Give the backbone structure.
Amino acid sequence: MKILVLGGSGHIGQRLITILAQTDWAEPIGASRHAPNAPSIRWRQLNSCQQPELQSALQGMDAVVNCVAGDGPSIAEGARVLVQAALQAGRPRIIHLSTQSVYGAVEGKIAEDAPLDPGLGWYGQAKCTAETHLHHYAHQGGETMILRPGCVYGPGSQLWVGRIGRWLRAGRLGDLGIGGDGWSNLVHVDDVCTALMTLLRSSQKPGDMATFNLAAPDSPRWNAYFVDLALAIGATPVRRLGRQVWLDAQLTSPPLKLVQLALKKVGLSTSALPDPLPPGLLRLWAQHIQLDARAAEQQLQLKFTPYASGLANSAKWFSESH
């Protein structure tokens, strides 16, 4: 099976390509704007928002996995272009990585039939728009599957292990009280890849659309994760923080983000800068949303990585790389 992995240089994309390359049934080809230094992997350098480039890359593909991240246009416009290119390239199966953010600010136990709400911010809005384009593909007779993971952690996760570990070491993050009592909805990167591989090999009628939440049932509340990760990487003592984190997110981090963007624009490294703390994370850490992933467990036969194991290999990666 020939599989094009869009966003193949990202955390999930790279891991998926590595795992697929070890099978005897998959022929993965990575695709992104910037090719990583991985000579053993077949690569296609392209801009996924340019239909001619993408349409050419899709020729002869049996499936495409859309792991594209980045800014809003890359996500939303990229999905529209993907659908148009796929319709002209033989209608390969599209498996799209969405997010829990499409549910908006809702709280409680949330299953896949919950209404989408694009009001949470640019990221959730872009992902909602992307899903709309994928529905169009299904209506045109294409095979479409959507995964909505929570927060993808594990080795290599800069978002949910790397920067959180750095914030903990710097004393910028700790026990947030009620501000950290939301559910983390953690899902290990290998579980996401397992679900993707199952969908790649599953049978589906053209025009059908399957959607699955992904979050480990034993994933803890954010405060517990912060404390557990801090203990595992030696970032102790863990302080009880309140207004300090709010001030960091609202006052310190916005100008820090502007400096980071300016340096990237001129091609300079931002590694010496501290990580900006996006204000949207404060809302996430307090949100009492818990993804219901029973459909993935039952229909995909997915066995989630136990939290203790995921925490251990995440902390090991962080300690070895920082």
Q: What stands out?
A: The first strand starts at residue 2 and ends at 6.
